[in-house]
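Box S1 | Example of a co-folding query
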Amino acid sequence: MIDFQHVTKKYTTNDKTITAVNDVNLVVQRGEIFGVIGFSGAGKSTLIRCVNLLERPTEGKILVNQKDLLTLSQKELRDVRRKIGMIFQHFNLLESKTVFHNVGFPLSLAGVPKQEIKRKVESLLEFVGLADKANHYPEQLSGGQKQRVGIARALATDPEILLCDEATSALDPQTTSSILDLLRKVREEYHITILMITHEMQVIKEICDKVAVMENGKVIEEGTIFDVFSNPKQQTTRNFVKTVMNDELPASVLEKIYHPKDNSKVYRLIFVEDSTEIPLISEVAKKFDVHTNILFGQIIELQHQPFGNLIVELQGATVEIEAAYEYMKQRVSIEEVKENGY
Ligand SMILES: Nc1ncnc2c1ncn2[C@@H]1O[C@H](COP(=O)(O)OP(=O)(O)OP(=O)(O)O)[C@@H](O)[C@H]1O
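Box S1 (continued) | Returned holo structure for adenosine-5'-triphosphate
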């Protein structure tokens, strides 16, 4: 649906050249919610703005529905752009126009008849839950309501792609959640492909199917949410994952690891998908002559699949601990926790 091929974007100002996006290759499939995360300055905004050619890549290609945007005529580009909606961090509403006219604006520009605009705007306002606010002005709305207007406006031209540029960054967590629910509904009911950029891993975790992590203009890691969260490879990715999954061990647990009892070992068990349903610890306690002591654990849900880890202390004779370890290794990912807690 969206295919970035070796996309590079450089800016030159005062004889200095900045490479904002550096040789990015990404494929966003039809119907996906794809997130791009990175710190400020990583190049996310530049990348997303390339999709509707608000920025023209310096090198590389962007294909939308197999069409190479850089080779299109003005008219063809206008047609493609009509199929790409966009929402923004600061909503970008017209303050002097009512909610109704903000949503209808792209349709008026396209010369759509008034009756048709009325029908369409009313149904979109119904969809985003603002049917009673049609005659309000943006200044009379909360941030979340303004973003709902932004979403309704973006949907007015029946886009196939929705670009979200930090769409929830100005909102509190609860409002963010309700906007993400709405975006999920947009995908389900309108079958729209969503590409979003954000610096919040919580947003990625809640809504995306896939994520790409950007740093210094490059994509340093990408994959499904499950793969990236359960096995982040780059330090920056690990830092982002930590913001939603705190895997640092509490001091009381570290104390046990620093000062282990005789005949005891501490293990980290990583549960993924179906393995979370295995009653592993009670099985181990029954099958082997060991005492099991759960020191720490957390399980979260990623894309409707449980994922978590458990820090367990096994006490007993070395031979029993080793046998229990081998048994667990067949069923979950397991590693001994060393003195530094990792
Ligand atoms: N129009 C421009 N002219 C010159 N440099 C630019 C321009 N737009 C962006 N840059 C530079 O390109 C780099 C990437 O910026 P970009 O806004 O794409 O990053 P970002 O990840 O979206 O960050 P933020 O979340 O802060 O917007 C930065 O160093 C920025 O200063």
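The two ends are 41 Å apart (CA to CA). The mean pLDDT is 90.
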